[in-house]
């Protein structure tokens, strides 16, 4: 195994599926003893030793002699020198494109943020976005200084139907894009491998490798905010959808058929539960078209009935949607996150009531975790998606 | 590789994950050339040759010298002797427990039905069901004659929340069972390995290995009848649910909240779309509590407005449920089956209208297949579930 920089973008040369599995286990579960790596990957100790030796020699992986842990299982009690990945052996950039902003982070292999950079955009035309992504990347590269030589590539997260293999954003209603090749111009200008991914899928990868989903066999992330999204991790991988569409929780017909969604359909969860839908309802009731979502939340907290009703209606749709995820896919853990979490206490009662009313049998046993979530988390998701592609040797195949 | 009958139940001793993959590919895709087996499993030709040699020697797999096919891909044009599994090298029983009937089939390794047997039951108490399953199994074993010595085990399919690892039916509302250990008494009386599985999950395995899902990367089966069920195959396996619950399409809150389900919840799909719900609506409207589902269908076909409305309402709930499956999990293929398919033309228009109205973007591109379905198919599902456990070496671990 070697790091090769014969092409643009430093890469890991993990040559066999077994070495990819072993490295992934050390990356996501380190520090971890060799015996546990073998047990958890189902590979022999010989295979682990063979895969780890060159990683140790090249400084990608380190054995923490100063931090011995006790082995678990049959070899319990024997002190071991646990393996872990050297976080900064490779670096990546993760960038999230919003409708009004481009957010970037620079991270090491474990998706820990070292630097971040934000730029607002006046419009979301593809040219504007490409220019701004390049400017944010340049800013992060400058912050990395000499370390930028260890960059493996740039992950970019966009909402909508994204074809990662071709780098084309097939359809992004939020950005107003149809068939936009985002990867090609970015690769040309940045001189680095570029991976475009759906934002919720990228976030799911981040949570699976480095977050709430790390030891979960099956989990779901539900994001509440300007859209209602869902990432599913089932049977060992993120659910991508055979036609590029999956996790479209915001467009399940769980709301009243009188509610018309921005997508044009009736009864979508987003039609009552997106921050925009809540805001519209509060503005209409108050006759105050200038209210912000912060104003709407303040009204609800101060007891305004129309504002409370708008958040309740959103919470009921979200709660029903969570029950659908549980009844249909049976995750052990559901993480509710997104920028809407700032007002979560306004949704929470109705979310939980509706979930409880419709979760079927043992599906109700799934653990609901709620978590504040920053815009940087989306960019970190893009970084995690790129890290996974680097480890799985997929980046230079795209 | 050997067939061992040192314990009850003939078994395949596939010793490595690679040999399991190779055998599975030959079983599900045979006749198939060695080169294609290697290409499709991602294993080397040497690995294929090594795994296949003992299978050929023992007559589990055969090379069809008399049926050469042309290789595909890089070796295109070269005649090859395709490999296939000898269907009757191992035999299995598959048994479906209904609320009023036990249905059994005897099949070979490719789940092709050789014999079937049915018995009605007066009640669905566990003792009655165990007695009847044993009687049906005995009838099938008698029909197999000397071949019964090649039986690998008995698969039993039950609706509800089933823990296959322990053989316990945790919760089956249809049978009125809670925490019933079905495997232990059957193993004791039959002297064969027994695998209990959820009926829809078993059907999904059958379709994935031997049916509509054979070359599908992700597919869903939706069953219409006395219940509305769903089996999902995603990321290389059936979705089982971390708490044993998944695919509960019948209990998604997509119907009017005025509709009360047999499970006690409001708004469930089954509350308007099960054959029982349709029948109740037609009976109530006609003031004729003795009507059968066949009578209800005849009324709808003859233009009775209340009967048509009942089937329409069912169709709309099922169509919305199909859109939920597509939007959330993005399968390439959805197979609609079940005993309700006999009246499918009465549901179809509303199913398709509602699916089209709510399928999001490219999720609408999934292929909807409809198929008539017999009760034997459920028993065949139980057989397929057992075959898979035999191949994956899971049966004697349970």
From TrEMBL, chains A, B:
Family membership noted in the UniProt record: Belongs to the ROK (NagC/XylR) family.
SUPFAM superfamilies (UniProt xref): Actin-like ATPase domain (SSF53067), Winged helix' DNA-binding domain (SSF46785)
Signal peptide per UniProt: none
Name of the molecule in the record: ROK family protein
InterPro entries for the chain: ATPase_NBD (IPR043129), ROK (IPR000600), ROK_cs (IPR049874), WH-like_DNA-bd_sf (IPR036388), WH_DNA-bd_sf (IPR036390)
UniProt-listed Gene3D superfamilies: 3.30.420.40, Winged helix-like DNA-binding domain superfamily/Winged helix DNA-binding domain (1.10.10.10)
Source species: Herbiconiux daphne
Annotated Pfam families: ROK
Transmembrane portions of the chain: none
């Amino acid at each position: 195994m070697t790091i090769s920089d014969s092409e643009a973008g430093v890469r890991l040369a993990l040559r066999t599926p077994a070495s990819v599995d072993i490295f992934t286990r050390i990356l996501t579960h380190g520090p971890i003893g060799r015996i546990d790596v073998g047990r958890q990957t189902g590979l022999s100790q010989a295979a682990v030793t063979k895969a780890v030796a060159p990683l140790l020699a090249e400084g990608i992986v380190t054995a923490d002699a100063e931090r011995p842990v006790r082995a678990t299982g049959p070899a319990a009690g024997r002190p071991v020198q646990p393996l872990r990945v050297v976080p900064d052996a490779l670096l990546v950039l993760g960038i999230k494109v919003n409708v009004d902003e481009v957010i970037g982070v620079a991270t090491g292999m474990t998706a820990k943020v070292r630097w971040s950079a934000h730029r607002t955009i006046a419009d979301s035309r593809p040219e504007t976005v490409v220019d701004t992504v390049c400017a944010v990347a340049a800013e992060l590269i400058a912050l990395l200084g000499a370390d930028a030589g260890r960059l493996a590539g740039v992950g970019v997260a966009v909402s909508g139907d994204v074809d990662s293999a071709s780098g084309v954003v097939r359809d992004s209603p939020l950005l107003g894009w149809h068939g936009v090749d985002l990867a090609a111009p970015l690769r040309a200008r940045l001189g680095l491998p570029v991976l475009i991914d759906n934002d919720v899928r990228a976030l799911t990868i981040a949570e699976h490798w480095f977050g709430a989903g790390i030891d979960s066999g099956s989990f779901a992330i539900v994001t509440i905010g300007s859209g209602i999204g869902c990432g599913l991790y089932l049977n060992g991988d993120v659910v991508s959808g055979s036609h590029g569409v999956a996790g479209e929780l915001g467009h399940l017909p769980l709301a009243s058929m009188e509610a018309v969604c921005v997508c044009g359909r009736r009864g979508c969860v987003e039609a009552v539960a997106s921050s925009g839908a809540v805001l519209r309802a509060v503005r209409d009731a108050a006759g105050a078209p200038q209210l912000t979502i912060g104003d709407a939340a303040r009204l609800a907290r101060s007891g305004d009935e129309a504002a409370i009703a708008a958040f309740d209606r959103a919470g009921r749709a979200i709660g029903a949607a969570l029950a659908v995820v549980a009844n249909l896919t049976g995750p052990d853990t559901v993480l509710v996150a997104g920028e809407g979490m700032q007002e979560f206490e306004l949704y929470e009662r109705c979310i939980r009531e509706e979930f409880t009313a419709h979760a079927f049998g043992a599906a109700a046993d799934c653990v609901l975790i709620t978590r504040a979530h920053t815009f940087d988390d989306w960019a970190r998701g893009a970084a995690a998606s790129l890290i996974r592609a680097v480890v799985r040797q997929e980046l230079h195949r795209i």
